[in-house]
Structures are given as structure tokens and as C-alpha cells.
Give the backbone structure.
Amino acid sequence: MRQPLTAGLIAVALLASGAHREARAQSSSRNTVNVKVESVLATDTHKGMDATLASSPVGRSLKSLFDYTTYHLLKHDEEHTIFGQAVAFNLPGGRIMHVAPIALEGNMIAMELVLFEGAHLIMRTQLKLPNHGALILVGPRSPRQTYITTIATETSQRPPGDTEQAETPPMAGGAAPALLPSRPLPVLP
């Protein structure tokens, strides 16, 4: 007679465990932030735009914002993170960028950006981007070429007024780069 009771308790424990895991997974997926970073080299060599860029919203933005004649996509990276956790991206020229989504406030994603050149910190800022929005960073520049980096972020839609706040600052204390390039990227003439 004890076996049916024991089996019933095990079944209830497994169901409760599964429900908890499912609730945690739903909560985690709701907090996921997708970060896309594209690195573009802009020059005046009259070679046009890469086909990948030409058919993308980024390509149309570049053409409307800048006067270069050639745009070449050097790198496309995409990472998934959660609010309060930074992700790192290797950029051309030995630069490393950390993107740390902090909170969703209405339709705006508050985040911290930290940029390194090698191990040297060169920029740290906090900003807000619209959910499904993008930021364009320009530089470094030389007379014949410019690196352009786009950062696009998106997260699942939430009800208005629902704010998800990170428990601790994403990069408290001394900042240090997480990724170093495996090899130096060539500088194109």
C-alpha cells in the first residue's frame, strides 16, 4: 500500500519541478536581450556597397547618413544576454566593446557601453536605445577610410510600465576587456 503513495509523491514532485523550470525559462526568455554588432569599413574607392549591406536597413542608413562611395561589411556578430550581464565584441583595429543591457524602461533599453583599445579603456557611457533600435558609432578615422560600428538591440515586448532592473551594476569596479583579437586585423589602404 505504501508504493502508490510514494509514486504519487514522486509524480507531484516531478510536476512541481517541471512547472518551476518552465516558469524560470519563461522569465529568462522574457529578460533576454539580443545584441547585434556590425563593423563596416567606409572608403571612397567607388566600389559600391556589399550586397549583404545593400539589402539591409543598416546599408540604407549608411547611404543616407554618410557620403562615402564604398561600404564593406567587415564583421557581423550577434550575442544573446540578459539584463545586468555584459557581452563583449571584437571590433576592427584591436578594439573591444562591452555592451551591458541594464533595464527595459517603457520601450527603451538602458545600457552601458565600454570601449577598449587593447587593454586600455577609451570610452565608457550609459545610454538608452529604443527597443529594436540601433546606435551608429563612427571611428577611428583616417583621411581615406572610416570604421563604422552599428549596435542594434531588441528584447521581447513587455506590458507598458513593466520595468526590469538589474540587481547590480553590470560592470562595477575596474573594467577590463574580456576578449582580445586572435590576430590583428589588416588596415586596408
The beta strands are 32-43, 48-49, 70-82, 87-91, 95-105, 108-117, 120-130, 133-141, 145-155, 164-165.
